[in-house]
Amino acid sequence: MASAHASFALTIAASRSFSFTIVPCPSPSPTHRPAASSVGVRNQQRASTAMACLQQPSASHDAATRLYVSGLSFRTTERSLRGAFEKFGDLTEVCLVMDRVANRPRGFAFLSYTEEEEARGAMEGMHGKFLDGRVIFVEVAKRRPGA
Fold first, then answer.
1. Looking at per-residue confidence, does 5 or 141 come out higher?
2. Which of 12, 17, 28, 50 has its CA 20 to 30 A from that of 93?
3. What are the protein's GO molecular function terms (predicted)?
């Protein structure tokens, strides 16, 4: 049991994955502020996502052949994604983004086709359709600024 005179300060530490940890820290007096390293904040800077595909997209893939698929179910696998989209053309890449902590898909993926017409057909054919019990959204992948 803690004594009646002990006071505790709550410290909130934000990590890159937007989860918060509340750590009780003893505070010796109201006027004393301990250094940040002794407050109980732990370095939680770790990557929380993993890509199911290991290869980097090649420079030959232009933006029109690369698609962004969102709204995916946590049950979606790379195989089910490939099966749904390969009827529109030759898929060169299926990249299902995974959450390392939860060990499940994060709900979005990137697909690449060899031809722009195939990508356009997949976008028109699958946007707003059901896949693994969820409505998915398909659009042209945008390049990240600075990438």
1. 141
2. 17
3. RNA binding
Q: Residues 126, 122, 85, 78: is their CA dihedral positive or negative?
A: negative
Mean pLDDT of 38-64: 50
Which DSSP category does 87 fall into?
Answer: G
> Is residue 24 situated within a structural domain?
no
CB-based contact 98:106 (threshold 8 Å) = yes
Print the domain residue range for 107. 66-140
CATH number at residue 103: 3.30.70.330
Q: Which of helix, strand or coil describes residue 84? A: helix
Q: In what order do the strands lie in the sheet with 104-113?
A: 49-51, 91-99, 104-113, 66-70, 137-140
- The reported pTM is 0.60
Number of Cα atoms under 13 Å in the Cβ half of residue 19: 11
For residue 64, the model assigns a pLDDT of 85
Is 17 within a domain? no
Residue 130 in domain: yes
DSSP state for residue 112 in the 8-state scheme: E
**Domain total for the chain?**
1
pLDDT of residue 125: 96
| 26 belongs to a structural domain | no
Looking at residue 113, what is its pLDDT?
Answer: 97
